């Protein structure tokens, strides 16, 4: 059975992608520390996602797994400070579709582009369970930042 295709999001995809993010982050330790009450979480996660990563839609740098099983919202090098790099504020896979390789598929898709451009990529993992996924794709832990009861782990990947 072949893997579903990776597609570039358009404006019509935004609601479905935001819903995928909401499902994926429903058990994220840091996000649920911020929004411990389920009603509070559901009331805020859509707007928080747009505020945190919505510019990726404006720049055409959102990709998703066919069927909205997962999505990656990347911010390109020209919209944030310091050294040029791609920034991944959100990688989300619907919990019903986790552990099927969709997160890896999204990372591989992006990493090919970054390698061709010779530009590093940066992310912060808010869930310790995801560190090994990122490490398998060449991301290295920089440090840990205490955030509530859970660390945020910045990671970087140099182009290959």
Keywords:
single chain; alpha+beta; 160 residues; 6 helices; 8-stranded mixed sheet; globular
Helix fraction bin: 25-40%
Task: Give the overall average pLDDT.
Answer: 95
Share of residues in strands:
15-25%
Taken from the alpha-carbon principal axes, the silhouette is globular
Tally of DSSP helical segments: 6
Question: Would you mind describing this structure in some detail?
Answer:
The chain is of the alpha+beta class. Helix content is 37%, strand content 24%. The protein starts with 5 loop residues before the first strand and ends with a strand.
Write the layout of secondary structure elements.
Layout: E1 6-8, H1 14-24, H2 29-34, H3 38-53, H4 55-58, E2 62-65, E3 70-75, E4 86-93, H5 102-117, E5 121-125, H6 131-136, E6 140-141, E7 145-147, E8 150-157
Parallel strand pairs: 4-5
Antiparallel strand pairs: 1-2, 2-3, 3-4, 5-8, 6-8, 7-8
Q: What is this structure, in a nutshell?
A:
The protein has six helices and eight strands.
């Amino acid at each position: 059975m072949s893997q579903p295709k990776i597609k570039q999001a358009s404006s019509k995809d935004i609601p479905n992608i935001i819903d995928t993010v909401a499902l994926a982050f429903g058990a994220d330790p840091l996000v649920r520390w911020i929004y411990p009450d389920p009603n509070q979480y559901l009331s805020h996660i859509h707007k928080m996602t747009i505020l945190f990563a919505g510019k990726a839609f404006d720049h055409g740098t959102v990709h998703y797994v066919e069927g909205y099983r997962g999505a990656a919202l990347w911010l390109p090098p020209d919209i944030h400070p310091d050294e040029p790099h791609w920034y991944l504020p959100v990688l989300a896979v619907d919990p019903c579709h986790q552990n099927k390789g969709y997160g890896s598929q999204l990372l591989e898709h992006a990493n090919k582009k970054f390698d061709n451009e010779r530009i590093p990529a940066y992310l912060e993992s808010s869930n310790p369970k995801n560190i090994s996924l990122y490490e398998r794709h060449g991301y290295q832990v920089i440090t840990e930042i205490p955030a509530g009861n859970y660390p945020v782990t910045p990671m970087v990947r140099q182009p290959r």
